[in-house]
Hints:
single chain, mainly alpha, 21 helices
Amino acid sequence: xxxxxxxxxVGGFTMISRITGFIRDxxxxxxxxxSLIADAFFxxxxxxxxxxxxFAEGAFNSxxxxxxxxxxxxxxxxxxxxxxxxxxxxxxxxxALFVALMEIIMPYAVMVVAPGFIETPGKVALTAELCRxxxxxxxxxxLNSMQGGILNTCGKFAAPAFTSTILNxxxxxxxxxxxxxxxxxxxxxxxxxxxxxxxxxxxxxxxxRKEGMLMRLVAPFKVLFRASEEAVLLLKRILPGxxxxxxxxxxxxxxxxxxSFLATGSVSFIYYANRMFQLPVGILGAAIGTALLPLLTxxxxxxxLEGEKESMSRxxxxxxxxxxxxxxxxxxxxxxxxxxxxxxxxxTSVETEKTAAALSAFAVGxxxxxxxxxxxxxxxxxxxxxxxVRVAAIALILNAFLCYTLMQEYGHVGIALATSITAxxxxxxxxxxxxxxxxxxxxxxxxxxxPKILVSALLMAWLLQxxxxxxxxxxxxxxxxxxxxxxxxxxxxxTVGIIIFSILALITRAFxxxxxxxxxxxxxxx
Length: 526
């Protein structure tokens, strides 16, 4: 099945990325802990990513990929390549100017996104210095995202999915190689971020050359004054997405804004917990959305309603089968996960408890995040980039209100919980919009399987909780033992949870082995 194979390819490479990301984060926790320097570095790491969905995976690629796929389908590779090169050049010129401006005003930008840092002497200056090192990554990741979108449309999913692994490996290498030559581990990690962007760019450019799609620059004058009809259409479609992504970025700034006023270490607690939360979101949500968007675009253009219905149904099944048990597993194993992965060196049991509480709060919204990423291609494949903007606008107001309200009582955990509640409300809006417009097509198999998936996940959670109690009784105080014992026991518990859910899903017929052999959902309907 084309869709499942594509999701598996992206998800598999993303899994490799998450594993190397765990190693990276364990090393960061060991060297930086949840200190003032750690808080400063995490803001420097997050700042270029605040704009990433604006210039990269979000607004830009959501508008570009359907148009590029349409050009490939209707006008051939050469026409599509010309359109891509024009778009690539415009993206480079615009983002380069933005990066240059941000480099100049960086201390003021830090004071806007993290005003609570002003209260600690030297914290703003340190953060701004680190941000100036990491911010060029925004230009590189934007260009890399577009190159990845081209490769995905050509049916090549492995290389773009591997780029995150390059980031992690480069940061790990920089931590050990560059630390003696810089002002400490935080600066070495910051340089690693930008260096990784260069390596990713060259790696994807090599793969594009193999596909005959290597990008070349178009003169600025031609981009500005002699743009093609396709480029003008892209601009029209991007603008609503830019507004929507801009609202989304404001949401992220709001989170950072509020958490900066909490106790030192709160930024770090949110970062580490969010990393665990992003494991299933990145592997599942990103993989499903990446594989589904070009496929739905082609099926809709050809009027293949049955193919569209099956593709969406199978994608939603994968989203629920993976995200619901993952959310319950994260909530049950919150403390063991954080202790096994991070409680070393400067990261103590106190940090473990606080980070685990935030992880449980994030886990509440996990299914909503993954399913929302699955539903978004239903908008973008039809060229509708404005509807998600309206959802994002509501989320902006709601998230700010919930963050301010919940942090009064629950601190950093309240900010994580506000994020999860907002995610569920966003999902509800997406669902009703698509149903009202007749854009959400699912088959009878999906409708029968949803309650079976939920029952299987709840039974798994109950049995996993019993397994955790049994482990505490027979293994003893394993959370405060050596690293290998903690990681081994955690691995066994995670494996047991996966096996239990798989057996229950087969027993309840929430999933069948034969699903992997379905003919539907293929790339086209030849």
